[in-house]
Amino acid sequence: MLAGAILDAGDGVLAVGESVIVMEQAVLRASARFALTVGDHVLIGPHASVSGAWIDDEVFVATNAAIFPGAVLGRGAEVRVNGVVQVRTRLEAGATVPIGWVAVGDPAPILPPDRHDEIWAAQEPLDFPGTVFGVDRNAPDAMVQLTERYSRAIERLSRSVPRGARDRR
């Protein structure tokens, strides 16, 4: 683990295999609903964000890539610089998400960022706010519900960490 990298199991399970490199400022996070498993011989680049996913062996997650909860990255997959693997998306073994592209769905079509309508058509039924926060996207107060639930979860976690350990997390 390089400087500034964060591995946070929260109230969930975070498992990291052998010979895993987590570069500076990368954030790896698990939760009660989404464990994070990282296989062997994985490189996670600087500023990458990986939350509640299954990452198989020999995977490369490049600088600034984002891997969302429920994602599965098959053996030898690559997510290149600024690539995105959306919530509940499955990348097959050996698949590559090119620089700045988006993988969304199961099985995942891999689309360039300028094809927003196609990305949204695949992404909407995956229900990010419902999957991650348990909030109905169409509720008139969806953001109020989302932020209040998230705030309560963060408060609960901060109370569960012993006082002296908070500075060492």
CATH topology of the largest domain: UDP N-Acetylglucosamine Acyltransferase, domain 1
Give the strand content: 15-25%
* Anisotropy-based shape: globular
Q: Roughly how much helix do the residues carry, as a percent range?
A: 10-25%
Number of strands: 17
Query: What strand line-up does the widest sheet have?
Result: 1-4-7-10-13-16-17
The CATH class assignment of the largest domain is Mainly Beta
In DSSP terms (H or I, runs of 4 or more residues), the helix count works out at: 3
Largest sheet: 7 strands, mixed
End-to-end Cα distance: 14 Å
Domain module count: 2
Low-confidence stretches: none
Q: Calculate the mean pLDDT score and round it.
A: 91
Determine the structural class based on helices, strands and strand pairing.
alpha/beta
- The H-and-E topology, N to C, reads as EEEEEEEEEEEEEEEEEHHH
Q: Which CATH architecture of the largest domain?
A: 3 Solenoid
Query: Over all CA atoms, what is the radius of gyration?
Result: 16 Å
Organism: Pseudolysinimonas kribbensis
Protein name: Gamma carbonic anhydrase family protein
InterPro entries: Transf_Hexapept/Carb_Anhydrase (IPR050484), Trimer_LpxA-like_sf (IPR011004)
